[in-house]
Amino acid sequence: MSIKAENQWRVVSVSVAGRSHEKRGQPCQDKHHWQILQEGILVAAVADGAGSSNLGDVGAKIAVNVALRAISQQKLLPVDDIGWQFLLVDALRAAKNAVLAESQVREVEPRELATTLILVVATPEFVLAAQVGDGAAVVGDGEENIFSLTSPQTGEHINETTFLISEPGVENAQVNIWRGKLLHLAIFSDGLQMLALKMPMGLPHSPFFTPLFKFMRVVTDEKEATRQLEEFLRSPKVTGRTDDDLTLLLARYG
């Protein structure tokens, strides 16, 4: 849980355990991580460990940490779209390999650490995202328009998705770029997608995002902003429609 303003970025992020996990005594299997690079570029990741996996939370934590490190440790950042796209896919692959390596260390099947992963690189002029699995990322511009950056990857059934450890996971990842005057960014796990998106199209549901983006205009205090966002995620208006783990990362530029 955090908020930080640097280089005109303001970021608020929270992960909370869903009611179903709390009833079973399970930890929150969602993880998130973000960092502002020296160049003023925001890098953020959200991962959702599989509910059917015993170590989904471990896989998710490894995925977000390794993916961000793969980008932040670059001595020279890309100068064009193709370079960025390759870097994001390489970061997904690094995260996948790290999760697989952890399964070997623990002597468990890789599926025990199954997780999704959304990785986003944001600047004031463009946003790139790479995603394996469900959840999504959306962006908002200065004219109050909201656009989908990614959409949930699902299988034949609504509760099925693709995981990072799967054979086609990285190869079939969504990799998208949006160009415009960025004002807002939101990344969220699948626990929120039925509230945040118009399914099955995967389009942003404006009544969900508009109040959150207004909230980001005024927040300044770390503890208070985190408390309010967590309170929202635990409110009946949210938990009445989902009992899954919930992660929401909000960012505003300027």
Note the gap between the termini. 21 Å
Q: Strands of the largest sheet, in order across it?
A: 1-2-13-10-7-8
The level-1 CATH class: Alpha Beta
Stretches where pLDDT falls below 50 for ≥5 residues?
Answer: none
Percent helix range:
25-40%
Total separate domains: 1
- Number of DSSP helices? 7
**Largest sheet features:** 6 strands, antiparallel
Structural class: alpha+beta
Q: Give the mean pLDDT.
A: 93
Number of strands: 13
CATH architecture: 4-Layer Sandwich
| Morphology | globular
**SS strand fraction:** 25-35%
Taken in chain order, the helices and strands follow as EEHEEHHEEEEEEHEEHHHE
Produce the secondary structure layout.
Elements: E1 2-6, E2 9-16, H1 19-23, E3 30-36, E4 42-48, H2 56-72, H3 81-106, E5 117-122, E6 126-132, E7 136-141, E8 146-148, E9 174-179, E10 182-188, H4 193-196, E11 197-198, E12 203-204, H5 206-218, H6 222-233, H7 236-239, E13 246-253
Antiparallel strand pairs: 1-2, 2-13, 3-4, 4-5, 5-6, 6-9, 7-8, 7-10, 10-13, 11-12
Helix pairs in contact: 2-3
How would you characterize the overall build of this protein?
By secondary structure, the protein is of the alpha+beta class. It has helices spanning 19-23, 56-72, 81-106, 193-196, 206-218, 222-233, 236-239, and strands spanning 2-6, 9-16, 30-36, 42-48, 117-122, 126-132, 136-141, 146-148, 174-179, 182-188, 197-198, 203-204, 246-253. The chain has a single domain (2-253), classed as 4-Layer Sandwich (Phosphatase 2c, domain 1), CATH 3.60.40. The chain has a six-stranded antiparallel beta sheet with strand order 1-2-13-10-7-8, with helices on one face. Strands 3-4-5-6-9 form a five-stranded antiparallel beta sheet, covered by helices on one side. Strands 11-12 form a two-stranded antiparallel sheet. Strand 3 and strand 4 form a beta hairpin. Helix 2 packs antiparallel against helix 3. The mean pLDDT is 93.
